[in-house]
Amino acid sequence: MDTVCKNARSIVATVVLASFALFVVACTGDPDPTATPSPQPTATPQPEPTATPLPDPTATPRPEPTTTPEPEVAKGELTDEEITIAYVEAAIARYERDGLEATAEYYNTLESIKDGRDLTILTEGDQTLLATPRDLTLIGTNIRTGPETPIGRILTDATAEGHWAETLRIDHESGREVPALNYLVLHDGLIFASWHSVLTENLAGFTQSYVQSAIDLYEREGLQATIDFYDSAESVDGQFYLFLIDENDQYLAHPIFPHLKGTDIKDVVGSNGYELGKEIAKATEEGHWVEYPWPHPVSGREEPKTAWVIRHDGLIFASGHYTPGPNDTPPEWIDADPAEHTVAYVEEAVDRYKQGGLQALLDYYNSVASFHGQFYLFATDADDIYIVHPLFPHLRGTDIKDVVDPTGFALGEEFARVGEEPVWIEYLWPHPITLLDEPKVAYAVRHDGIMFASGYYPIPTDDPVAYTQQYVQDAIERYERDGREATFAYYSREESIDGQWNLTVLDPDGTILLDPLFHHLVGTNITAIPTTRLSFFYAEAIAKAEAEGIWLSAPWNFINTTEQDQRNIWIVRHDGFIFMSSYYSPILV
């Protein structure tokens, strides 16, 4: 059997963001090793507009608004769609009157935002941003709007007559993802665009449209092209992603949990015991809705999901939207000693087996609901054959005695020797975040012939605080030496990842520009992650971040989990960007 390292490389790293949730502790020094109370949500002044200076109005005189007054619209006279059209048409009229430079200058000011609407101006073709008042650092770039990006693909549909597109956008008041109608006009080689939010009920329509677009791709380009696209991070649009199932109810595509591919959806059970897979397998050509709890692709937290499932040409096409609920209480194991929680987790699994039997054990611990951050169960039968492994399901049905780690250590033989007296075993194993090999410490015990085991990953340095700070400083020095493009390219590659350390870069408003683990989140505003209390505290941390750096500590999701471990993030502002790296710990700091 191949080494675990090779097995791990055959698995596509699951993309789940990365979520902040529940509560956050921010400080300007090193993390306090003792538990500290969460900061009170007091108002924190946001940076003055001078932090990102706007062009001097005297440099290019701007016509006074009274020159061509925009008509006053009485409330109730126009629909939201008509107001958005009028706003975009006024921008085009300003362009025809004053030219591109003056128009872009005006629409890069907060003054230009009307009734919550802001205007975006882009070039046709490469879709480079010329105006976007909420984030001036993106002017002259197309990192979020290029034709190959999710937003960019929508922008390419702009027409001279005007085109409406339904998407999810970030509401700048609530910081949450909301349904939106985008109005796009192609004029004189430029794209003029604005949007307004619509009723949340429209999510059902968006979901069905997303699924229909997948069916259209299948009809147009065939099965393999459809699998290739919807298996990729590129296909994920906020909370929307497609899971595709064949005529035998086997997963063909799943961009968030690729380990499900090749498995039978009828075997999937929710954390509440609901046999959601069997309900999805009942899909007909008319389609139906299925409700169940499932991890959100952005936050990673389990939330109520409503999925539209429809059978077409024998295949099941499905996607869904989420209804977040309040969850202010952190899991009890967040501040637990990792060794103690490992023992408790294994004992809980043994108890579940005693009470519910073998099938109850298999159903729960082979599901995504069973993860506790880095903790998950793996189990073998009396013949040393894997019967439980939620992170690497391809191991199920194989002999654990054949498994060795990258050093050649025959860890499988050690687990096969486990008896009724529990033992601890140390070895190298892929970390659930990076899927790169790291030291792991596992606790194992045999009961009723079954070997039950779980483990944790010790922090691999004696001074993770200093190491994290140095990792960020090295990135900043590379940025100064090699420039932005070369630095971003390097830190987007796997070679830049050092164990649990990797680099994330945000623009000043919190939009992700670089993340080597969660590529599908590039372009997402991190303050809009659907949690209960993060938006306020994260915005506060960004506002406070300076060249000296600050710490932010928060629960964080591991791959395939519905819960979090503790992530300690070092945040430094440099040249207008936010550079971040972090280390994980099982206790609050």
Model description:
The chain is an alpha+beta fold and 589 residues long. The protein folds into 4 domains: 14-46 and 462-585, PAS domain (Beta-Lactamase, 2-Layer Sandwich), CATH 3.30.450; 55-197, Beta-Lactamase (2-Layer Sandwich); 203-322, Beta-Lactamase (2-Layer Sandwich); 338-371 and 375-456, Beta-Lactamase, CATH 3.30.450. The chain is 24% helix and 23% strand. It is built from 13 helices and 21 strands. The strands form 4 sheets. It has a 6-stranded antiparallel beta sheet, with helices on both faces. Strands 3-2-6-5-4 form a 5-stranded antiparallel beta sheet. A hairpin with a 2-residue loop joins strand 15 and strand 16. The longest helix is centred in the N-terminal third of the chain and has 19 residues, at 80-98. It is globular and about 85 Å long.
Q: How many beta-strand elements?
A: 21
- Identify the CATH architecture of the largest domain: 2-Layer Sandwich
Class from secondary-structure proportions = alpha+beta
Strand content: 15-25%
- Radius of gyration, whole Å: 26 Å
The CATH homologous superfamily name of the largest domain equals: PAS domain
Low-pLDDT stretches are 1-75, 530-537, 557-564
Widest sheet: strand order? Answer: 1-19-20-21-17-18
Tally of individual helices = 13
Inertia-based shape: globular
Helical amount: 10-25%
List the helices and strands and how they pair.
Layout: H1 4-9, E1 25-27, H2 80-98, H3 100-107, E2 120-123, E3 129-131, H4 150-155, E4 163-170, E5 177-187, E6 190-197, H5 203-221, H6 223-230, E7 243-245, E8 251-253, H7 276-280, E9 288-295, E10 302-312, E11 315-322, H8 338-356, H9 358-365, E12 378-380, E13 386-388, H10 411-416, E14 423-430, E15 437-447, E16 450-456, H11 464-482, H12 484-491, E17 504-506, E18 512-514, H13 534-544, E19 550-557, E20 564-574, E21 577-585
Antiparallel strand pairs: 1-19, 2-3, 2-6, 4-5, 5-6, 7-8, 7-11, 9-10, 10-11, 12-13, 12-16, 14-15, 15-16, 17-18, 17-21, 19-20, 20-21
Helix pairs in contact: 2-3, 5-6, 8-9, 11-12
